[in-house]
Design brief:
Length: 745
Amino acid sequence: MKFTDGFWQMRSGVHASYATEVRDVRLDDDRLAAYAAVKRVERRGDTLNAPLITVEAHAPAEGVIAVRLTHHAGRRRKGPDFELPGASPQSAATTRTQGATAELTSGPLTLRLPTEGTFGLEFLDGDGRVLTSAGRKGSAFATVDDGSHHMFAQLDLGVGETVHGLGERFTPYVKNGQTVDMWQADGGTSSEQAYKNIPFYLSSRGYGVFVNHPGKVSFEVGSEAVGQVQFSVEDQTLEYFVIAGPTPKDVLSRYAALTGLPALPPAWSFGLWLTTSFTTSYDEATVTSFVDGMAERGIPLSVFHFDCFWMREYQWCDFEWDPAVFPDPEGMITRLKDKGLKICVWINPYIGQKSPLYEEGAEKGYFVQTPDGDIWQWDKWQAGMALVDFTNPEATSWFQAKLKVLLDQGVDGFKTDFGERIPTDVVWHDGSDPERMHNYYTHLYNKAVFELLENERGQGEAVLFARSAAAGGQQYPVHWGGDCWSSFEAMAESLRGGLSLSLSGFGFWSHDIGGFEGTPDPAVFKRWLAFGLLSSHSRLHGSSSYRVPWEFGDEAVDVARQFTRLKHRLMPYLYGVAVEAHRTGVPTMRPLLLEFPEDPTARTADRQYLLGPDVLVAPVFTDDGEVEYYVPEGTWTHLLTGDTVTGPAWHRETHGFDSLPLLVRQGAVLALGADESRPDGEWLDDLELRVFAPAGTGDFTRTVTVPDRTGAVAATYEVVREGGEARVTTDTDRPYTVTVVGERD
């Protein structure tokens, strides 16, 4: 929310009070509290009829400092609150006073504030460098003539500092100059609305900020006060965490550890997913023709997904197959699984009035209610739909029991759609604040489904295809980018959303290959195939038209075959990257900022990414194949052609539909599998270690770890490159080959 009218004045009806002067500071061993007057106190009488702002600080985890600003402390906290599985019940901090300052230190991060005089907060790194600070207007509250009360903070932006993250946002990748509201919405990918609102941002200066509030948080990123990031909530209290680096990877690891590390998706989920599409006509014969058509054309398929109309119209959700279309669902699932497929079905948390489950849920009180005690209903999406109340444990168990029937039939995963259009004029079973629950609802929804899958299928076998998320939602992968158009522009905005989400703690991300709405031009579809099959997860899905490759010509079939098989070969490398995401929170699809934080150009690159640490992907967004992309320092080798390019520099190339800039970092050793037919094959069978050593690389040693399908280490290879030769020592007796790419003749 913007409170000011330009630099000098407040907006009409807004009255702001800023922490101005320190009146008291109290230190315990591991936390501190400061009390700041909102005006200068010249005499005793100035302490009357005026508020204090209470500022409390502690460390919920090493390298994380929490700051809580409070005006009136008596407001009853209804919840919900973000789950913070990485938070310690004891503050991970030490305190001290030094002269006229007090300090609270946690790992490489220190909060410093004065014990007397002008109030302000400074956050310092381990070398004593000020990362950011809350200056004269940095800790405050505002009242508005409409009766609302807002707490807000401002943290300084340095010259050239860039801000990233804040969830999956399709607006410009660098958030400087934007107003960003945390409010879940079903707005597609072509607006400022977002399905995944995460009140966390990452700074190019090597720190992050997480606002610990699940409701509406308004960010003004250098937009109201151009030299600050401002964030505000309509509340009496505001808590934010400053998270230390020093590198962006370190920031993300600390944030993900605090809010929940992502589960490791099963290896089979990294293969190609094909769906029925949304409103198209389909039955078992149609589905079988798609599956057999893929096999006949040599395109490996891993998952088949049934979208909404696997259920009867007007009955979403009843979790029952439409008997007129699928008279033998168990038999059909068995027949599809006999072809080597996993099965996914679409669900959402809404129960239409025509669904047999409506009466059952209404009788048992499992739906969200109005303040008058009625069931909240509307006709958007499904006629008379009600909303499952996941704050009620019995309702959650009831919902899970309905899904378990599908798992017993052979379903392997769920596309957990929707979860954004959550009303605020309602009453929740546990008394939660409706404003705070609006964003948080999706977390309870996805958690319920994911935990059911883990309980029934086992840890490491659970996977969702989720559209909405809140902070901590990265624990329940995978997430996809939502409803986009079938155009190059939508392809680019989808990538921006994925990059922003990856800098918000999410390890795995996907998108609808070819776009969702409309029917893509064959050129768009073919370019999107390469992008989609070089993402962590890959799905062919549309709205009113099919997405089987042969609908877009023979060349589309060739492109789909080529890049699906390439992804399968990359799986020993890619699954190792997935294991890293699971253990550290560093995402599989990485903005260049993560690997090259000292490169100013890398900080703003939004049309390319790194797949893991070593593979740079620059999707082509043009019909004619012309692509402009940036390579950081070093010599990079095209994986598909063996050509090299050097950086730091921009390059412009033209690529056919069977190609794109796919570059491997100098000195990398890629582990490539021999099995092109599936993502979860025997990776150690005839493994190839491809050593990228272009001229001038010099001697080096690299350790390559190949995981098994549980994420445990299956084999380790130490590759030593000296004098143009590569020597390998390993702890496995499985056969492998070594290929050195880039040696002089």
